[in-house]
Amino acid sequence: MKKTLLLALVPFLSGCGLILVNGPPSGWQDIQDQDQLETMAITQPCTTGKRALLLDVTGTVFYGTTWGVFVSDQSDPMPLAERIMLPLLIPVGAHLFSALKGNQRVNDCRAFNARLLQERRGDEQASHEWLDEL
């Protein structure tokens, strides 16, 4: 029974926020050249969706709930919670870390894209002002 339970947990061992989510290239905040920002956006696309993070959140909830059930079980003379506490808390922490790190990457990517869009609009406004002067 215990081995079956542990084998059933194996599919939830994921780090989707770390593996599947790509953030913007490092140092993008310091770049002032719009052409270089556009080149970065084309050559190194980043992830703007948070769907992959749902797997990490699901894993965190699943492992956390399982841990809570084992902790509350008082029928065993040597509670299973003492034997399984650390093996279940490690995946909870790993999934939570992966979800938070992936969320940070998605937010950075959205900020990168917003800045790129703002730079493009700034150039359009400058060209319109130049045409208005004519």
Which structural traits does this protein have?
single chain, 134 residues, mainly alpha, 5 helices, 73% helix, 0% strand
Task: Note down, in words, how this protein is organized.
The protein has helices at 2-9, 16-19, 34-43, 51-72, 80-133. It is rod-shaped, with a radius of gyration of 23 Å. It is mostly helical. Helix 3 (34-43) packs across helix 5 (80-133) and helix 4 packs antiparallel against helix 5 (80-133). The mean pLDDT is 78.
Radius of gyration: 23 Å
Mean pLDDT: 78
Number of helices: 5
In total, the number of strands is 0
For the sheet with most strands, the description reads:
none
Structural class: mainly alpha
**CA distance, first residue to last residue:** 82 Å
Shape: rod-shaped
Low-confidence stretches: none
Tell me the β content. under 5%
* Helix content percent band: over 70%
SSE order: HHHHH
Please write out the topology:
Elements: H1 2-9, H2 16-19, H3 34-43, H4 51-72, H5 80-133
Helix pairs in contact: 3-5, 4-5
In short:
The protein has 5 helices and no strands. With 134 residues, it is mainly alpha-helical. The radius of gyration is 23 Å and the shape is rod-shaped.
